[in-house]
Write a structure and sequence with these properties.
The structure is a homodimer of 479-residue chains.
Chain A (H helix, E strand, L loop, with lengths): L8 E4 L4 E4 L7 E6 L10 H19 L3 E6 L15 H9 L3 H18 L15 H13 L3 E4 L2 E4 L1 H7 L10 H7 L15 E6 L15 E3 L1 H13 L3 E7 L3 H16 L4 E7 L2 E3 L14 H6 L11 H9 L7 E3 L1 H23 L10 H13 L4 H19 L7 H18 L6 H23 L3 H13 L9
Parallel strand pairs in A: 3-4, 3-9, 9-10, 11-12
Antiparallel strand pairs in A: 1-2, 5-6, 6-7, 7-8
Helix pairs in contact in A: 2-3, 4-7, 7-8, 10-11, 11-13, 12-13, 12-14, 15-16
Chain lengths: 479, 479
């Protein structure tokens, strides 16, 4: 366990303050993050959330904690507003396939995209449909305690009764009257005791494909319930960190807290973390207005938003240039700038490796390392951490210009910790440069060949052409 | 739909004959393959099975069928012989992690390995733990029909009663007395009416972590049941193809058939396909005797069996050099030979692309294409298909030597169908050569530079060195 773990402060949405992080069980951290609803291609804003929690997962592991990171897959029960039909069933009809084929298709796609961003896989990735029994059991417990009621085959959480014994909406601090006005869950409103009550179990319409037997009806669980049931199953009644996008704070996370608290008499997680929004050209991303782009469209350049294609690492680096609690605006200018900046980091890595050492040093690498820890310990502040990389570029330039000297010990420390912070913790990959090299090396050969042909040195130019041909690379002579 | 789909014959373990394949629903094919038990790194023999069914999946899709390919993940209920503890729980204790972390770890690993072999993902990949309700419901139906009984909180399939109404062991044609002698499921034998009865539900010991509520006990489903329940859910009572390794024929598939047949009065799948064993140096692979190697150990060369490392494509090509119903023996000699042969196929692809055309042709490419279809239509005979590739090498050599001529139309047909059979159907990837190219291009540059230095043409040699340096590639001058 690194000593710096005592200095980690995390902004807690529950207390609205930055609190020193201390896990419930020494050395063990339990973390739950709300995963995607796999009914379409994952949204860039969601990707930002998972990239942010990847940094958190990686840093906690770096600190020496044994982290059980649970990130669910919502494959059932996520209702469209004002509808009795869930998002996946709806998509299955559109694509004319079985709902579970929709689930499989978009789960595979989700995994592939996160792989491109070098995001680590969670310890457990449970699915909602895989935990129907656990959800039915939890609903029964909530009914038995008097905080939920059956109505026409569906079961609703009784927010009024809950509010008499506990504070409802601890994260968003809404009072119940506000909740009524904000509630768009009009479906089943005539079945509810109070408008702000939310569904724990929904009776399925006859046409609904994804449904299971329960004591109340053939139906399916409400969306808020799955995270309560699965976090309880895999992390217990009380765990360390619960995270998700800011849009989940209310109602999802507030409902989750209520569901768990009415059974265990405590808020399930100590720390609640929320990642902020990603906008596109200053506006909310939205398919209907056309202000929208997918990660894959950024990588292959097949979009109307950007002047060129950008790599996953550029996009990831761009995201890390803002703190996860701040909004970030995606634009052509911003990505072009991030690409240039990331190239400087790639160059930094090379320069660092090639740095000449002296017998003496007037540089303290430990100070630089300490500053990096200070940045990341400040609520996982990635832009601050990246600023330290630019300090390092300055240091290297001073050494290269002879203004400063570094000995081997200090150089090795820099190399080691630059790798720790850039590769292990930020999860940046410098591998893509390798693949790019092939074309650049080829360019050198072609440039050489053109030179030789200009000088009528055809033996060499033909040698190059024939050698490349034998590799299956055909170059045409433009006469 | 291609016309050649009428010519596909498949060996059916149920009839012990090669039968013409005709799907139940025109254009649609339902296929179920028993997936891995994710309690350790997937065995090479299992990989062979999944690679074999990948060929089948790819060919059926090529024929124009809309294939729903279901391959399950066994993440609960696979009991060790003579033990009340399932394989995953046991592993979780060994690794000191939660069973679902074991499941996640080895599921991720399984996916990564199959990706390396360029195996397509199935349409649906359901987990046993995600279908407990469906299994409980199916057990209840079997009890209600009189073919299963509860005993001490567990439920057993009543093979005796079943045998009065149906033929038991349709695939392996064992009679019940033989089954008794072969049965190693001694656990719970005092609870069973007949020794050959098998568990549909097992009451869990107190220490058992993976358990669910049921009408009979807090317990978990028997291993044979999950495939019956999940194939029924996603493919219906009757579907086209059921596959798996030969070792699953009995008891797993025979028990599966019994479970479904007693409810629907018919055998669930029309075609039952079984892939044969993969041995290592003539003997069964076994960890305890040391006669064992993992796919990853073959790729990184970190093993005591082989003289060098081999690529996933070499290993896959090796497997396809035998028909899936034959045993295949892995050895150093065999892999060296397959590597050379695969290189010839890679070269074939290049030669085909570069083939010079004439105005006339005395080659009928269509004959070659027809032969390829004939091979693959013969029970997916991959070695026969590969033999056609060697016929193609002969044809190309005859054209190169001037003995034969080919026109553009015939050349295009060959290029198109070589790609169909090698890339689309066998799923061979020629991409690895691309990455190798970087080093080969670099070698050309270095060879050139050495030449220029010999000729004291230092302007060019320094140009090459500086250009490479700027890419971070440092070349030393050996004086």
């Amino acid at each position: 366990m690194l000593s710096s773990n005592k200095d980690l402060k995390i902004y807690n949405s529950l207390t609205s303050t930055k609190d020193i992080f201390s896990p419930i069980n020494e050395n063990l951290v339990g973390m739950y993050v709300c995963g995607p609803t796999v009914y379409n291609t994952v949204h860039l804003g969601n990707i930002r959330t998972f990239i942010s929690f990847d940094l958190i997962f990686r840093y906690l592991k770096h600190l020496g904690y044994n982290v059980r990171y649970v990130r669910n897959i919502t494959d059932v029960g996520h209702l469209e507003d004002d509808s009795d039909e869930d998002k996946i069933s709806k998509r299955a009809k559109t694509e004319k396939i079985e709902p579970m084929e929709v689930v499989q298709k978009y789960t595979n796609e989700f995994h592939s995209i996160l792989d491109l961003f070098n995001v680590l896989k969670p310890s457990i990735e449970p699915t909602a449909s895989g935990h129907i029994i656990e959800q039915i059991e939890m609903i029964q417990e909530i009914i038995d305690k008097g905080y939920a009621y059956e109505s026409n085959g569906s079961v609703y959480f009784d927010t009024n009764t809950f509010s008499k014994d506990f504070k409802y909406s601890k994260l968003s601090n809404r009072d119940l009257d506000n909740v009524i006005n904000e509630s768009r869950d009009l479906a089943g409103s005539n079945e509810k005791r109070n408008l702000q009550d939310f569904a724990l179990w929904k009776k399925a319409e006859h046409k609904h494909i994804m449904k299971w037997k329960s004591p109340w009806s053939l139906g399916f669980p409400g969306w808020h319930l799955e995270c309560s049931a699965m976090s309880r199953k895999y992390l217990g009644n009380k765990f360390d960190i619960h995270g998700g996008g800011l849009d989940l704070k209310f109602p999802h996370h507030d409902c989750e807290i209520a569901q768990n608290e009415c059974l265990s008499n405590e808020v399930s997680a100590n720390f609640w973390l929320h990642t902020n929004m990603l906008t596109l050209n200053g506006k909310k991303m939205s398919k209907s207005t056309g202000n929208s782009v997918l990660a894959s469209e950024i990588f292959d350049g097949n979009n109307n938003i950007f002047s060129k294609s950008f790599s996953p690492m550029t996009l990831k680096f761009f995201m890390y240039q803002a703190h996860y609690r701040n909004t970030i605006d995606l634009s052509n200018e911003a990505l072009l700038a991030s690409e240039k900046t990331f190239e400087k980091i790639v160059q930094l890595k090379k320069d660092l490796d090639n740095l000449e050492t002296s017998d003496t040093s007037n540089i303290s690498s430990q100070d630089w390392v300490d500053n990096c820890y200070k940045s990341i310990n400040d609520d996982f502040n990635s832009p601050k951490l990246i600023a330290n990389f630019f300090d390092l570029i300055k240091i290297i330039n001073e050494i290269k210009s002879g203004k400063k000297k570094i000995d081997k010990e200090n150089k090795d420390l820099l190399i080691n910790y630059f790798s720790v912070f850039s590769t292990d913790i930020l999860g940046l990959s410098f591998e893509s440069e390798k693949n790019d090299n092939q074309n650049q090396i080829l360019d050198i050969l072609i440039e050489l060949r053109d030179k030789e042909r200009e000088n009528k040195n055809y033996i060499i130019s033909d040698f190059i052409r024939d050698k490349l041909n034998s590799l299956g690379i055909n170059i045409e002579d433009n006469k």
